Amino acid sequence: MTGLQDRLTREQVEEFGREMDELRQRLVADLGEEDVAYIHNVIKTQRGLEVAGRALLFAGFFPPAWLAGVGALSLSKILDNMEIGHNVMHGQYDWTRDPALSSQRFEWDTVAPAENWRHSHNYIHHTYTNIVDKDRDVGYGILRIDPAQKWHPYYLGNPVYAVMLAFIFQWGVMLHDLEFDRIVKGERKWSEFADVRKRMLRKASRQVGKDYVLFPLLTGPLAPLTLLGNASANVVRNLWAFSIIFCGHFPADVESFSEQETEQESRGQWYLRQILGSANITGGPLFHILSGNLSHQIEHHLFPDIPARRYPQIAPEVRAICEKYGLPYNTGPLHKQLFSVAKKLVKYALPDRGGDANRPEPSTLNRDRNLSAA
């Protein structure tokens, strides 16, 4: 962020980190029955929507019933993936000791195996947030979304790849763990991913069998309509998840970092990287629930293992702390953030103006370290 080095010293960064630690401690101390009741109610609602959606598809010969079934099933899949699966697998409810809410036992309604996802998302992404060549969510191995990614003619298809990824997003998340781009470059070997592939095949087979074989067959002569309904619900969920996730990570002014500048970073610098590398989406209570509260991506990256229902509660305080230290707090409505992402996808599809020598460097945390002598 231009001019940040004029306002924030190393000491301020560490004080900022202490304030974030104190906020986290207050949240942990306040967790209790309301949080448990909330997630149980969401699970109950999700299951009710799934049952209703499946039942309505049995009346698929009546168009309004088919549409209602697709709608209910879409909402069920969105809740399962966003507010339940994503958050439970982050360990947000491990403190309850409830096996049904265990991050290590939970499996969600998507082709991506939970075990693979916990490694690529919980560990890789949240440890190395926006560190180019470390955080594999930067471009997902197929998109150029940051100027630090070297341009190649392949990226001329950036917008097309993004649209395709949006429609099949659950499959993109699953295949993400294979690291095809690194295998092609010779950085990894196909044999290294044997266990990953086995888990993928097992989980994808179950999901495909459930949505496209079992449930369609149960509706007899309506099987084609049921199959189409299940596919439609999966597409709706995919488009929604893609939009929320990309708007939380890639709109304008979200910053990236290099491996070198993030070595041996302090706790305060880690918090700072989460602030600079994330963005929020404004909306109402229902919008936040359907987004898994990832509409509060900044708060999620600061405290990924705190129940997401708490993010709207602490967002004003996090924003106030950012304002206190002159830090950016990137937020805006969905349409604005989505348009911003689209512009970046188009911009970085094209060669850099003036060649590689003029390409902007990733934003840096070294600005804080360099101030130690100031």
Describe this protein with a few key phrases.
disordered C terminus, mainly alpha, 374 residues, two-stranded parallel ribbon, disordered N terminus, 2 strands
| SS content category | mainly alpha
Strand content: under 5%
Oligomer: single chain
Helix content: 55-70%
What is the number of helical segments per DSSP (H or I, 4+ residues)?
15
**Beta strands, count:** 2
Sheet of most strands: 2 strands, parallel
**Whole-angstrom Rg:** 22 Å
Strand order across the biggest sheet?
Answer: 1-2
* Overall residue-averaged pLDDT value: 90
Order of helices and strands: HHHHHHHHHHEHHHEHH
For the record, the count of structural domains works out to 1
Low-pLDDT parts are 1-6, 355-374
Terminal CA distance: 19 Å
Shape: globular
Quick structural overview:
Keywords: Membrane, Transmembrane, Transmembrane helix. With 374 residues, the protein is mainly alpha-helical. It has helices spanning 10-30, 33-57, 63-88, 114-127, 158-167, 169-176, 180-184, 194-218, 223-249, 267-276, 285-290, 297-302, 311-324, 334-347, 366-369, and strands at residues 280-282, 331-333.
Report on this model:
By secondary structure, this protein is an all-alpha fold. The protein has one domain. 57% of the residues lie in helices and 2% in strands. The chain is built from 15 helices and two strands. It is globular. The model is unreliable at 1-6 and 355-374 (pLDDT under 50).
